[in-house]
Amino acid sequence: MNAPITSRLGPNGGGRRRDQLSDEVAAQLRAEIMSGALRPGTYIRLDETAARLGVSITPIREALRTLRGEGMVQLEPHRGHVVAPLTRGDIEDIFWLQATIARKLTAAAVDRITDAELDELTALNEALAAAVDRGVVGEVAAAMSAFHRVLHRTTGRIKLAWFLYHVARYMPPQIYATDQQWGTATVARHRELIAALRRRDTETATRVTVDLFTDSAQRLIAQLEKVGIWT
């Protein structure tokens, strides 16, 4: 079970502003929808959700407004917010967009990345490997974020990286971080990517990048099929 959001942020949301707390709630609910924990057609009750996440009703309401704008939930008059349909095509579209943007970023990194940055990526990938071996979900997610943050920083394409960051919000971290097979495969692909970047091999680097997202899409679709979201 996930810890209440307020306990993860610290007392009173760790001093965060209200909009930041609502972002945390939106991220939690988005992950639950994308992982199938909240199925299409499920009503998200304000009181129940606030109690479960350990927050007041206000950030729940604001988070639902955000998710409604993203098409993740729908507001039914006199009934409340309900989880919107999620199709295989939706998953494929999300990962296609991520792969398309990431491919462009990787190509930019080939031309710009330095030996020092490649060494930093290598160290971060080894940290990811260690986190995968320990099986600590939070550590795996943090190590993944650190690796991609540094990689995208090397590209000089800050706005494009920003778009990828926002699309990546739809990848439910707990599905991947709890899958050791995915972690091991990702670490291996990262090593292949780093080697290609060292050789300035754009073709291999971009292929590996697309493979990462293709694999992630297949794993998420398999998980959603397993929990019966489309039956």
TrEMBL record:
<dbReference type="Pfam" id="PF07729">
    <property type="entry name" value="FCD"/>
</dbReference>
<dbReference type="InterPro" id="IPR008920">
    <property type="entry name" value="TF_FadR/GntR_C"/>
</dbReference>
<dbReference type="InterPro" id="IPR011711">
    <property type="entry name" value="GntR_C"/>
</dbReference>
<dbReference type="Pfam" id="PF00392">
    <property type="entry name" value="GntR"/>
</dbReference>
<feature type="domain" description="HTH gntR-type">
    <location>
        <begin position="19"/>
        <end position="86"/>
    </location>
</feature>
<feature type="region of interest" description="Disordered">
    <location>
        <begin position="1"/>
        <end position="21"/>
    </location>
</feature>
<dbReference type="InterPro" id="IPR036388">
    <property type="entry name" value="WH-like_DNA-bd_sf"/>
</dbReference>
<protein>
    <submittedName>
        <fullName>GntR family transcriptional regulator</fullName>
    </submittedName>
</protein>
<keyword id="KW-0804">Transcription</keyword>
<dbReference type="GO" id="GO:0003677">
    <property type="term" value="F:DNA binding"/>
</dbReference>
<dbReference type="InterPro" id="IPR000524">
    <property type="entry name" value="Tscrpt_reg_HTH_GntR"/>
</dbReference>
<keyword id="KW-0805">Transcription regulation</keyword>
<keyword id="KW-0238">DNA-binding</keyword>
<dbReference type="GO" id="GO:0003700">
    <property type="term" value="F:DNA-binding transcription factor activity"/>
</dbReference>
<dbReference type="InterPro" id="IPR036390">
    <property type="entry name" value="WH_DNA-bd_sf"/>
</dbReference>
